[in-house]
Amino acid sequence: MRNILLKIRICSPIFLIILYILIMAAGQISAKYGSLQTAVSAGSLRSSFNGFHVLSYFFLILRAPLWFFILKKNDISSAYPVLALNYVIILIFSALIFSEKVTTGKIAGSLLITAGVLLVITSSKISGIKTINTGSEI
Amino acid sequence: MGYLFALVMVIFTAAGHLTFKHFAVLFKIQKPYTKNIGNLINPYFAAGLLLFAAAPLFYFKALETLELSTAFSLTAVNQIIIPLSGLVFFKEIFNIKKISGIILIAAGILIWNI
After folding, report:
1. Cα angle at B35 between B29 and B36, to 5 degrees?
2. Chain A residues lying within 8 Å of B21, measured CB to CB
3. Contact predicate B98/A105, CB 8 Å
4. What is the pLDDT along chain A (138 residues), one digit of tens a residue?
5. For chain B, N or C: smaller number of CB within 10 Å?
6. Chain A positions in Cβ-Cβ contact with residue B20 (cut-off 8 Å)
7. What's this model's pTM, rounded to 2 decimal places?
């Protein structure tokens, strides 16, 4: 019984969208990581592309089919706004990994985005709450 | 001129997402899964890929004259256009909660980029 619930929850749209956002962030982080390395040896064309750039393309290819499955089952007007969470995640990771500056504007913007995303999620079926309820009836 | 390029980028990205959505809705997943590869040859899929591939080129052109924060904050426009297109083209459900959420997100992106 618990297993059934867990399975449904993992397949719920919001979980897939969050996974998509994490892959998107991973792609951006590896792109930045790659560019930081090539910036040191700037000059030739060969040195402006490295393994981390390839990795960021890999993440791009990896997330495409995931977005397909999300769009297949969900409203684009509910799924797309959630992608804005990417701004919040990038802010956190850029501060943690690359020690970039966190400004008040970015924090305020992130809070607004998070509030907006929570409103969109609770206004639609993508929260997956309905799916979990159906599961408990089995 | 930079704004024109940015506008094209925004429209191409939105159009790309919408054609991809249309493709995803129409696509029927078949078994065995290898059968699906042939079905990927589809005008909507091709159009979506083309739009997604072309959008960054206009973004790069826009960046030649616009500041990064200006160009990047224009992506907030997509947060409004794409959900609205969902309402217009796919007859998706809208309520006050969703609309206020979308407005908050767009405002958040604008402030984030200041």
Report:
1. 45
2. 71, 76
3. no
4. 555 555 556 668 888 999 999 999 998 888 888 888 877 765 555 566 788 888 888 898 898 889 999 998 899 999 999 999 999 999 999 999 888 889 999 999 999 999 999 999 998 887 765 444 444 444
5. N
6. 67-68, 71
7. 0.83
